[in-house]
């Protein structure tokens, strides 16, 4: 469907200055189908648009109560090239031009941040852009502000412009005073932290069903326990510092209507409890919540599509309970947990192990691979026959071939659908649940799998396939196959 709406031969909505350029209008039409119609794209929020187009990690900041590390966060986001949007207060009427040049109730883009030296003192500046391309800030550090004469000629040439193009600078203090909120959205959570750590991501889907799993918030003591419950393990990096946050939790409610303007968001939130009783199987009962207080929770229940919290959790097991504010309200949701993991030591062990068994070019042939698999992976347990030299030759010959043949996007990584095709091509059977587990364990924060991770995955999967098939044959019970493979991925 490549037809575009026109009037008198001209595109009605988004159009390029070039008469033969149609990708903006085609992209707009695709998004209209996602939303339900062109009408359903009217208004909305920048955060929803950023998440819809990137599928990334989003954080919302209320600028009336900014975090202490706001400047550092914006600097990391700027260097990472992530998206940043902000909005002005509604005032008495939206889209009204105020005396200071800003439009009330209007969305702006943050296009850069920089620290300059003015009169011997550092000043933090934020660059903003009005998508209308007209109307600019008239206060300090605006295009015609005399303050630009107080910085070095090099900085002035780098930052200063007097074009009426909708882009301008202002101080961080004015930014927090004149704008109500800031939304940052990146493809991964790296911009959240100043250290070069890695993140583990887990995703859970669920639904609040009236009468069964829609227990409402903690005020409803008799029914709160009936809400969906998710046990998660937090490990790795932890700091006793107040700002040593290591876990980012996002709760998104899914639309229950095809047309976006008909969607009614529920007030949603979540509570997190530390699991002290490890032997509990199934749902935690009401008695657990009557004696345990949450170690973290959303500050308020909001009727927004997403609520999120960036928090500090000690290593251990936790129970996350997402809920609507009132009981018996129906909605589907997506719960995502990003937690820091310490992988440097484990990575070094893997590198040392590989270097011990590879040649000077850090490569292995079929015979070396056979020795590694049988001696180090199977630990000499060759009841099943172990890995034959033919199998290892096939692995060496086909590994690169399978990876690059299934990488149809030519990104050098495998998406979830490409990973499925690669696993099928390798001749190993997996179900959807196991495939998702592979993407979580061996994929990056974006879910994509690199060649190195793919090789590690296939080697582990092949060894588990050999061992588990033998064990299941011994038990004469093939129905346990996927259960064995599922457990083996994390043991």
Automatic annotation (TrEMBL):
GO terms for biological process: proteolysis. Keywords: Calcium, Hydrolase, Metal-binding, Protease, Repeat, Thiol protease. One of its GO terms (cellular component) is cytoplasm. One of its GO terms (molecular function) is metal ion binding. The keyword Secreted does not apply. Residues 1-188 form the Calpain catalytic domain. InterPro entries: C2_III (IPR033883), Calpain_cysteine_protease (IPR022684), Calpain_domain_III (IPR022682), Calpain_III (IPR022683), Calpain_III_sf (IPR036213), CAPN3/13-like_C_EFh (IPR054069), EF-hand-dom_pair (IPR011992), EF_Hand_1_Ca_BS (IPR018247). It comes from the Eukaryota. The active site is at residues 106, 130. Belongs to the peptidase C2 family. PANTHER family: CALPAIN, CALPAIN-14. This is Zgc:136872.
């Amino acid at each position: 469907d490549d037809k575009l709406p026109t009037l008198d031969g001209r595109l009605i909505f988004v159009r390029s200055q070039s008469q033969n350029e149609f990708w903006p209008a085609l992209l707009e039409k695709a998004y209209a189908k996602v939303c339900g119609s062109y009408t359903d794209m009217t208004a909305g929020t920048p955060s929803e648009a950023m998440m819809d187009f990137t599928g990334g990690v989003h954080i919302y900041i209320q600028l009336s109560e900014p975090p202490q590390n706001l400047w550092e966060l914006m600097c990391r986001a700027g260097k990472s090239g992530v998206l940043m949007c902000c909005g002005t207060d509604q005032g008495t009427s939206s889209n009204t031009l105020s005396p200071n040049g800003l439009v009330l109730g209007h969305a702006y883009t943050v296009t850069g941040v920089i620290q300059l030296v003015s009169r011997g003192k550092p000043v933090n500046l934020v660059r903003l852009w009005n998508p209308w391309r007209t109307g600019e800030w008239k206060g300090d550090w605006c295009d015609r502000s005399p303050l630009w004469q107080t910085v070095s000629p090099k900085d002035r040439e780098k930052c200063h412009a007097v074009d009426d193009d909708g882009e301008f600078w202002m101080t961080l203090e004015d930014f927090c005073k004149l704008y109500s909120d800031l939304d940052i959205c990146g493809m991964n959570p790296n911009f959240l932290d100043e250290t070069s750590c890695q993140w583990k991501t887990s995703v859970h889907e669920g639904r609040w069903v009236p009468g069964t799993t829609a227990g409402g918030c903690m005020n409803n003591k008799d029914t709160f326990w009936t809400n969906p419950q998710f046990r998660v393990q937090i490990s790795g990096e932890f700091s006793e510092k107040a700002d040593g946050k290591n876990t980012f939790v996002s709760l998104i409610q899914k639309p229950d209507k095809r047309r976006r303007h008909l969607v009614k968001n529920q007030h949603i939130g979540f509570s997190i409890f530390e699991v002290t009783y490890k032997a509990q199987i199934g749902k935690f009962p009401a008695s657990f919540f009557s004696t345990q207080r949450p170690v973290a929770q959303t500050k308020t229940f909001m009727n927004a599509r997403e609520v999120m919290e960036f928090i500090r959790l000690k290593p251990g097991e936790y129970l996350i309970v997402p809920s609507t504010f009132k009981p018996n309200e129906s909605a589907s949701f997506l719960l995502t947990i990003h937690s820091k993991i310490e992988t440097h030591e484990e990575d070094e062990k893997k590198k040392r192990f590989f270097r011990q068994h590879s040649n000077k070019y850090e490569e292995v042939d079929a015979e070396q691979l056979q020795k590694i698999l049988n001696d180090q992976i199977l630990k000499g347990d060759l009841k099943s026959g172990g890995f034959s030299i033919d199998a290892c030759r096939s692995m060496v010959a086909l590994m690169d071939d399978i990876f690059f043949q299934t990488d149809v996007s030519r990104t050098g990584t495998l998406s979830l659908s490409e990973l499925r095709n690669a696993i099928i091509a390798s001749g190993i059977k997996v179900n959807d649940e196991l495939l998702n587990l592979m993407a979580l364990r061996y994929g990056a924060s974006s879910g994509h799998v690199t060649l190195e991770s793919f090789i590690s995955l296939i080697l582990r999967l092949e060894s588990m396939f050999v061992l588990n098939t033998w064990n299941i044959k011994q038990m004469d019970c093939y129905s346990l196959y996927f259960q064995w493979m599922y457990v083996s991925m994390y043991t």
